[in-house]
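Proteins fold reproducibly. Look at a concrete instance:
___
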Amino acid sequence: MSDRPLPDDLDIDTLAIRAAQLRTDEMAHSDPIFLTSSFVYESAAQAAARFSGEEPGNVYSRFTNPTVRAFEQRLAALEGGEQCVAFASGMAAITATFMALLSPGDHIVSSRGVFGTTHVVYDKYLRKFGIETTLVDLADLDAWRAAIRPETRFLYLETPSNPLAEVGDIAALAELAHAHGAELIVDNCFCTPALQRPLELGADIIIHSATKYLDGQGRCLGGAVIGPAARMGEVYSFLRSTGASMSPFNAWVFLSGLETLSLRMQAHSANALALAEWLQQQPGIARVHYAGLTSHAHHELAARQQRGFGGVLSFEVEDSAGQRDRQAAWRFIDATRLVSITANLGDVKTTITHPASTTHARVNDDEKRRSGISENLIRLAVGLEALNDLKADMVRGLQAMGQTPRA
């Protein structure tokens, strides 16, 4: 890292560029990348000291690599956390947190509106080890309170949620968790620290899929967990032993992505809000889900705890015959020519998907219904293309359903 300490109290936009800068003997201005599996020692004694932890330094890139460490330190600085542990993917980060910090007999209370694969981890894998999960509606504080048991260790949520953009009250849930001796975990993937800092609102641990907005261009997979050093030590130990490690190359890409994070999130938010406002005026759009709309049930909460509304929205479609089904949604999606039909998000390129058959396909039908994942629901992760071009592509979708769009 740089030998010159940074000034205190830097703005988050500056930290995204300057925190944890790597400096080699060559003093390159751009962050270098350390593509190596292992590291060389000056003596057998030094090797022993490194392996035992008596001497700090690099050992093996499964758990110590300078480029990965720089990404971890920079993201921790942006989130205001003590320590970050990087993983190979967002799901690896989620699973490692649960496996490292929970024991058989423990209990999780989770919002329903989480990524579909997280439901699989709950139902198929954590249950196998005697860890139970109770699902509740994100905005229903009474439901959260009623679901807590003496063995509850975590309250877990994504806010905004995927794909309905529901918003959870982080401060209220943190207070509730702490009153019952539990911790609050917030998946901050959709907002990133550029728009929301859950630790400042009382959350204990933050989860990220770095694959999304932290990268920003759909290039690499990665995940991260941020929290108190005392808790992250056990998460790091799990990483060291099980090896779901972030590659140095991916970490180097994410370091560059963080440098433009704030600018991109502002632009994503502006494009998404304008498109959401336009969509809700169109025939064939039964409902738009986006917390930036004043009509959204959680708009005021989102405006209070976020610094923007993000780039992800969803909407329910209806064809000219009044059908609100999968076929209508697929006709809309297939008629687009600009946006990318893919389940990823957080990209400068706008992406479109049908959650019921992609991101939430492995969620059972009853839980889809309770979560609001209808067959006519489409998710749009709004990128940075020109707004008029995005509107033109939505027009193609509306016309494919037999609708006549308004200007």
